[in-house]
Design the sequence.
DNA sequence: AATATTTTTAATCATTTGATTAAATTGTTT
DNA sequence: AAACAATTTAATCAAATGATTAAAAATATT
């Protein structure tokens, strides 16, 4: 076996293929990606893809798994920390995801797409994120807040909103950028601003109950 | 020429193909769709696709154009109506889009995807939605509100938020439904609720400026 | 009815594409 | 260096796929 005698510089062929596959799959999706595209992107022979990974699909599954893990990775600690408040958890989560999405803007669309193609396949491949039967700290904290403040709104809405506000700008980025004419740098600046704004907005939503919606301070 | 002698019942082959193509393209995307899939879905001979539409791509372009028009259609009247207030416009727009999305839940992902594949292609095919140089009524109304209420937040955020809150739940529906276990009926009920909730939340956001964010009424 | 036109079908083509193979090359071990 | 193992290459395969064609069937026109 070789085990990479080159001090560093060029990664192994296997790693080069994975990197190329990551780029091409993420940008074009599974169906539109040709194994030849990946080989070309990696600057390597076509047959190496089948030599290192048995098939296009096997390679894809590896990339997909990596991407899913980026979503799930390291948030368990966040949402299950008894030392932080609910508000701090929301801020930390949103900050974490925005940082991750700025680094990997193509990720959400890629994942959502493949889930859409076959929703059950994801569960089968990634496995249900089963966290046993112990309730998460964040869930308990929400329950306590909802009880204390008599919050009537369906919490699904709040969850949906936090996710929507955080992720959608990245999904719609090409459209948004195209229509508004803002460039990547401006876009990223906006995303950084949202780290503080989204928790504030979400907090405001929890505050706002339909019965209170006609308060005198309303702008419109 | 025939011109559809059948009183009604079965549509023309051409229309059947378009309907089938709409379904298959929307669900699987361009690359994953085989012309044979469309023929089978339509229950017609494969060659008819190339007989009526010159190629797979031409057929796709037609479907794409229809979908884009669904997005743009009939909103010009809404946003340019001098008789309605800004708040009423937002309510009407969100209501309009939620109704449309309940009918066509696969639309946003399809459109966003194809824009991503090639952002400039969309502009080329659909044509820039050029509304001349006259300012829209909704733009003027926003400008007036912003000036009157000394709103400092970048309006792009507000626009992004309204779009995110309205569209993302449909894009993420398979994921959301999968994780929360709610069925289609429940989901649609939630979307109906959002017709009233989103304008309220958006209004709340405009109200909330960062300097005011630590008001004493905060829930968290 | 006879003829022309349009629509539909089955068969086939040319290319693309995922995968394989056998040989060549490179690296490692003895 | 010889022998062995791992890696890489070029050539090729078989299946899939978008497209075409020529004939048949259906419909319209005269």
Sequence:
């Amino acid at each position: 076996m070789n085990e990479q005698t080159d001090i560093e510089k060029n990664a192994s062929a296997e790693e080069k293929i994975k990197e190329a596959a990551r780029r091409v799959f993420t940008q074009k999706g599974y169906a539109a990606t040709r194994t030849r595209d990946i080989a070309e992107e990696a600057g390597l022979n076509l047959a190496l893809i089948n030599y290192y990974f048995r098939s296009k699909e096997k390679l894809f599954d590896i990339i997909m798994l990596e991407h899913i893990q980026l979503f799930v990775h390291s948030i368990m600690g966040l949402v299950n920390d008894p030392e932080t408040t609910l508000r701090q958890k929301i801020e930390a989560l949103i900050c974490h995801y925005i940082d991750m999405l700025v680094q990997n803007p193509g990720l959400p669309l890629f994942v959502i797409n493949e889930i859409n193609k076959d929703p059950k396949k994801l569960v089968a491949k990634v496995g249900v994120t089963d966290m046993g039967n112990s309730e998460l700290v964040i869930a308990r904290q929400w329950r306590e807040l909802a009880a204390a403040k008599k919050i009537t709104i369906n919490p699904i809405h709040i969850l949906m909103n936090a996710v929507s506000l955080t992720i959608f700008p990245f999904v719609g980025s090409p459209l948004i950028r195209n229509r508004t004419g803002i460039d990547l740098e401006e876009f990223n600046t906006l995303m950084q601003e949202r780290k503080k704004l989204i928790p504030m907005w979400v907090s405001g939503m929890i505050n706002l109950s339909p019965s209170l919606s006609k308060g005198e301070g309303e702008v419109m």
Observations:
- Residues 1-2, 13, 44-48, 51 of chain B lie near DNA strand C (CB under 10 Å from a C1').
- Chain B has a mean pLDDT of 86.
